[in-house]
Amino acid sequence: MKPLLTISRWIDGLNTAVGQAVTWLVLLVAVVSAGNAVMRKLFSLGSNAWLELQWYLFGAIFLLAAGYTFLRNEHVRVDVLSQKLPERTQVGIEIFGVVFFLLPAACLVFWLSIPFFWESWITHELSSNTDGLIRWPAKLLIPVGFALLILAGLSHLIKCAGFLRGLCPNPMKVSSGKSDEETLVEDILAQRQADIEAGQGR
């Protein structure tokens, strides 16, 4: 089990590195989007290449960060009922969901996306739009993104099994910390409390 947990840490390290790198794409896509809007509105200039680059970057953000998002337990879960169950039962349900839902679906999309990308690669497919970009980089994002998600799912399974055997913490408890919304609410409440105390001291 310990060698598997080591592999799990390597996978998590890979997804973490990719996820942190992808965060810079958010800034890049914001700059590209703003540049496209400014050129179109102020100078009546447009470029299909820059518009398609914007779409490619959006795709890269969502596909390449999928594994990292799963690692951080940030994907949407409907766990109103399961969260009331014992911790070990929750992990058992998690294993069932990953084995019978996540991995089969992700593997299917990965498998079907390979010829989709390969055909684009060997034919040097170009956008049908004037001055558009080549297509294969965008199509390559699909198998790469789902491969990272599959690895994240396997890593999660290893950690769930490790938890059930008492070898590692509960992977479902992993958290990236407080969300921005939670931090903002706490700041507002603290400021309000400070204002109330200041008013009472006058």
UniProtKB/TrEMBL annotation:
Annotated TM spans: 12-33, 53-71, 91-118, 138-158
Family according to the record: Belongs to the TRAP transporter small permease family.
Protein name from the UniProt record: TRAP transporter small permease protein
Subcellular location: Cell inner membrane
Keywords per UniProt: Cell inner membrane, Cell membrane, Membrane, Transmembrane, Transmembrane helix, Transport
Its biological purpose: Part of the tripartite ATP-independent periplasmic (TRAP) transport system.
Predominant subcellular localization, coarse grouping: membrane
Ranges for domain Tripartite ATP-independent periplasmic transporters DctQ component: 31-159
Keyword DNA damage assigned: no
Lipid bilayer topology: Multi-pass membrane protein
A Pfam family the protein falls into: DctQ
Source species of the chain: Castellaniella denitrificans
Coiled-coil stretches: none
Assembly information from the UniProt record: The complex comprises the extracytoplasmic solute receptor protein and the two transmembrane proteins.
